[in-house]
Amino acid sequence: MANNTLTSRAIGTAAELLQTNPQSLKRFGAAISELALDISKSGINSVVDNVKAGVQKTYDQTFGEIGRMMDRNKAYVEKDPLEPDEPPAKNIEILKPKKLVVWLVHPTNYRQNGEPRKFKRQILPTNAISQLNALIPKKITTQPSIENEKPEEIIVETRFLEDTAQPFDIDEIQRSMDGENVHGVVMLCGIQTNQWMRALNLAELCQQKNIPVVAGGYHVRADLPISQQQAKKYGISLAIGEGESELEDGSPFMDKILQDAWNQNLQPEYRQSQNPKIDNASLPLIIEDYQELMINRNMATLETSRGCPLPCSFCTIRTIGGTDVRTRDPKSMKEWLRGQYDQHGIETVFITDDNFSKSKQRFEVLDVLADLRAEGLPIGAMIQVDTMATLGKEGARFVDACQKAGVYAVFLGIESVDPATLKGMDKPQNHPDRYKDMIQTWHDHNILAQCGFILGSKEDTPGVGRRSAQTLLKMGIDVAAAYVLTPLPGSVDYHKFHEAGNVKEADFNAYDSHSKAYLEFPGGMSPEQIMKEYAEFYEEFFALKNLPHLAERLEGRALIAAMRQWFWYKYAINKGDHPMYSGWGTLETDYRRSDFTNNIPTDVQELAPRADGPGSPAREKRGRKLDVIS
Ligand code: B12
Ligand code: SF4
Fold first, then answer.
1. Which partner from 9, 148, 266, 294 sits 20 to 30 angstroms from 215, CA to CA?
2. Distances (CA, A) of 114 to 198, 298, 589
3. Which of 316, 324, 325, 386 has most ligand 2 atoms within 8 Å of CB, for mutation?
4. Tell me: the pLDDT tens digits for 417-470?
5. In this structure, which residue's CA is closest to atom 6 in ligand 2?
């Protein structure tokens, strides 16, 4: 009997892992060896019975999973706290509570043929959804506009829609807002520049149904006049700031938006007074059904700090997130992480801080993770750091602390192996002659070294793709993500290149650092040549002959993660996606971006940034801080 249970558990576990968590190969392997041990102990007859039981369980699980997949496209709805459990007795009139329905929608972008880029499973959860879910209260109290009017309590019901992995069903959104005393608002959130055109189209669909829309995220915070004009056309209200911030008049950003949404009186824009402190900001509220849309449902994202003091000209983190790094209180993270593990099975946390090594609280955060591991929680972490993170005594202490904390992967901002190109990027902290030692240090701590690499700078010359891939391989980089140089609105590059007339693309959908090169520099490579270099970089780096080397430098979880990522990158590139923006399979949709001309300015000059906007020379003089070891 014990063997029966053991075998079906092993088969069940294996089936479950294959269905819901294909990357947990290690546990799958353990389940298989458990099964093999069982077979050798119990003889063939009982094994046949056990396999039957296992097959039954697998069958049940498979159909359970199909059911879940069908449900997956239905939005998550929290139970209305005022909704009675029992149906009301006849003849008793129940006053329907007032309710504001808030849809958190993360827009995808379009493929070049106009098809929305949608997958059956998404690679990483969108932080903005879980973060805003935490910031939106369950109830708001109206502020009376006239004397003697009583404040009223409004229930706030939050739903989500991940446009990258779910159909955008405007009728379902509209139905959720139907009814007496019910109002609704769609919050388009976490919008990157390449998602802005899709966001406009979604807003257009909402506008046709009279559903109010508020939009926010890095693209909105870049504060471009053209985006503000486009927003006006579709009646979009803009949230130019962080959800945790305050408006100029001192009122909380989010409260004001919710109040105005209830009163059906949204303003054209909400502008934060300054980047807020986040010490005690709410931690993300993870939604179980949302996690089910992910390839790895056991991974969560968490920001422990915001901003970066370094000067890289292509990046918007320092210009929009700020050069003074703001941190969360690490103590609050311990309970949060424990809770996420217990409630949602979160075993991997991607710390999304763009430069975790510049967070003043990095050691405290790592201690929290190490303590949890000491308690027996199998939590692992991925981090992103600069190339100075391992330097000196402090660097040595940092890498040790990372290993103790269960960090198994680090993303390094390498960007180029050529000092002239790095100079052009205003990245003085990067020294290619130090890269090899730095990578070795991470490997010595059994941490896989992944890096970002940018192609298409004016200093790049033909052959740069293959040449750079070979150099990175020799230096020991395990997995490399290449990007086509793109002027992100809000960055110093955006101002610089626009001013110089190098920007040749008016469709923001193409600003995904992958589908198209459009920056042209006099004497530099043509956009076609840049795309050729980009393709050759991936071809060279991910040649099968390079795969076995991973096992020479890593082991355990880091090795499994490196192999998983390696194959993932190959799969995504073969599919024509960027590995950072791909997913499992394709979610078919009939919708095609129709208004190729409507939303695209006729002249790139219309893309001009504000003279005092983020990344502008006017602001750079005030904000720039050099904190670089040269
Ligand atoms: C994690 C991450 C990823 C992940 C996951 C992305 C995802 N879908 O969530 C991966 C690795 C997949 C990824 C890929 C890419 N990313 Co990325 N990514 C990040 C990173 C490091 C963290 C994002 C995050 O979780 N932030 C935390 C959340 C809570 O912040 P938020 O979304 O901005 O939301 C806050 C506010 O903006 C505001 N807000 C947002 N929406 C709304 C809506 C309303 C109504 C309100 C009131 C408020 C509000 O409130 C929130 C809480 O404060 C950011 C940099 C950063 N620090 O933000 C870059 C960043 C977002 N990525 C960027 C880019 C360019 C990309 C890529 C195109 C290529 C690349 N260079 O990496 C690809 C494209 C993939 C894609 N299209 O999604 C840029 C975007 C800049 C831009 N203008 O487009 C950023 C800003 C980094 C940078 N280099 O400057 N990325
Ligand atoms: S080090 Fe990274 S996060 Fe900091 S400015 Fe440079 S690219 Fe941006």
1. 294
2. 10, 32, 11
3. 386
4. 999 999 999 999 999 999 999 999 999 999 999 999 999 999 999 999 999 999
5. 312
